[in-house]
Write a structure and sequence with these properties.
By secondary structure, the chain is mainly β. The protein is built from one helix and 21 strands. The N and C termini lie far apart (about 80 Å). It comes from Actinocorallia longicatena.
Length: about 350
Amino acid sequence: MRLRLTTMTAVAALALSVTQAPAADALPSAPAKAPVAKAAAKVPAPVNRIGWAYVKSTTPNKGYVFKKTSLPIGRKGKAVYRSFLRMNLSSAMDATKITSAKLRLPVLSPNPCKKNKNFAVQVFITSGLTKSVTWKKQPKGKRWQWLKVKCSGKRLEVNVTKAAQKAVDAGRDYISFGLRADSEKDPRKFMTFSRNAQLLIKATFEEDPGGGNDPGPDPSVHVPVNVGNATAAGQGCGVGAGRPTIATPYVTFGGTTSDADGGFLGLRAEWRKGADGAVAGANSKLRFTDPNEAVGFTVTTGEVLTDGVYQWRVQGFDDVKGGAWTDWCEFEVTLPVVPPVAG
C-alpha cells in the first residue's frame, strides 16, 4: 500500500457531527466494503464545502451562520464568542486507513507566532449542529484536546486523526468542530480565525481484485431526493395537448427537495427548444438546510425564449452531486404581437 495525500480546503459547512451524537442525530452506518487487494492508482478528488457559524453571548437568541466574515472566539468587551466548523471527509470515504488528519486554522489576529505570545484554543467534536444554532442552542460537545500553538506562518494546527477515522468508519463524510478560547474571562485571549480552514489527510487506498476502485459507501445516501411540485411559470408538468402556454420570454422554474444529510441545497433546471434543441440550464442559489428539511426553490431562464414548444426538467443538487432528474415536461411560448409604430 502507498500513502496518498489529499488536501481538503473547506470553509466548513454546518450539520450533524462525529462523536457523542444523540441517537436521533445518528446517520446510517456505511455499507460493508468489497474485498480489496493492491494499492489504488488514484485518490478521490477533494470536494470543497462552504459554511461556518459563530455565536455571541450578548445576542443569545441569534446565530451568525454563513456570514462572510471571520470566526471569533473569546471575550471582547461584554460579549463572549464561540465558533463552529464542519469539514469535508468525502475524499477519504473509501480509504483503507486514515494515517494522518490535521486541522489547520489560519489566524487573523493576533499573530500567534509573535514573540511572547502563548495562546491555546479548546477544540470540541460537536453534535447536532444546525442552521438554528444560537448562544442558547449550541451543539453538544466533548472537550477533546487543547490546541496549542504550532507556528507555521499565522496558523494553528491540531491532530484529528482518530476523530476522522471514527467518522469514516461510521459512514459520515464530514466532521464538525466547536472552537472556544481557553479563557472566556480574559480579553487578551480573544482571537479571530479565517473561515478558510483546512483538513489535510494522509490515507491508504486499495483496489478490488477486478481492478476497479472500491466504491465505498452508497452515494445515494448523500444526494437530494427527487424534486416535488415541479413547475414552469407556476404551472405543473404537461406534455402535448396538456402543456401550458406562456406569454413571456423568460420562465421561472420551481420545485421542492430535501437531503438526508442537510447542508447546502439548490435546484437546477434544464430546457431545450423541441426534442432536438440544444440544452441550456441554470442553477438556483444554494441554501443551507437541516437534515430532511423540504425547501422550495426557484430558478429563471437566463436567455430570451422565442415562440415555440420547449421541453424542461429539474433536479435537486447539493455541494457534492445532483439527485434524479424529473421527466421531461413541456410548455409553449406564444409571445404577444407588438403592433407596428405609426409613422
